[in-house]
Design goal:
Helices cover 0% and strands 59% of the residues. It is mostly beta strands. Strand 5 and strand 6 form a beta hairpin. It is globular and about 45 Å long. This is Lipocalin-like protein.
């Protein structure tokens, strides 16, 4: 699997835990992964959205046969304000787990992502559980030096 190290593209979908108009929305992912001795390390950048930071974040994980698991660590979180549409970014450590299956022939992986219910007593904050779907496929890295994050991608 080491030969699969490199650039991957895909998306995740907001699922349970999100109300309309967010439920079912796709967020693009741009990922660099390294596969070595059953361990996966890397980082991904997600397009900017109502609940996605648009930042690059690190992840770790593992694969075993056709199963894969990745844990993405965040240090801040966008929280929905009482109006139900606007968000505010707060400093808060949390993790999102991506579990799924891997198709070696198609050089693709997909599965379910989830985040646990979390309480932060220091911030008087509760993050409700949420989950959705995700897909990544091996891709050629774009050759442009243009910073696509300027476009919110």
């Amino acid at each position: 699997m080491e030969e699969l190290s490199g650039y991957w593209e895909g998306y995740f979908i907001y699922g349970l835990g999100f109300d309309l108009p967010f439920f079912g929305e796709k967020v693009r992912l741009f990922t660099e992964m390294e596969f070595k001795d059953g361990i996966i390390t890397g980082h991904h950048t997600e397009e900017k959205g109502p609940f996605s930071t648009g930042r690059t974040v690190n992840f770790t994980g593992f694969w075993e046969q056709n199963l894969i698991s990745l844990t993405v660590s965040y240090t801040s979180n966008d929280v929905i304000l009482e109006d139900g549409f606007n968000t505010e970014e707060i400093e808060h450590n949390f993790e999102i787990v991506y579990n799924g299956s891997f198709d070696y022939k198609k050089k693709a992986m997909n599965g379910i992502w989830f985040m646990q219910n979390e309480m932060d007593e220091n911030l008087d904050l509760e993050i409700p559980p949420a989950e959705g779907l995700w897909v990544l496929k091996k891709a050629k890295k774009p050759v442009s030096d243009f910073d696509y994050s300027l476009l919110g991608l």
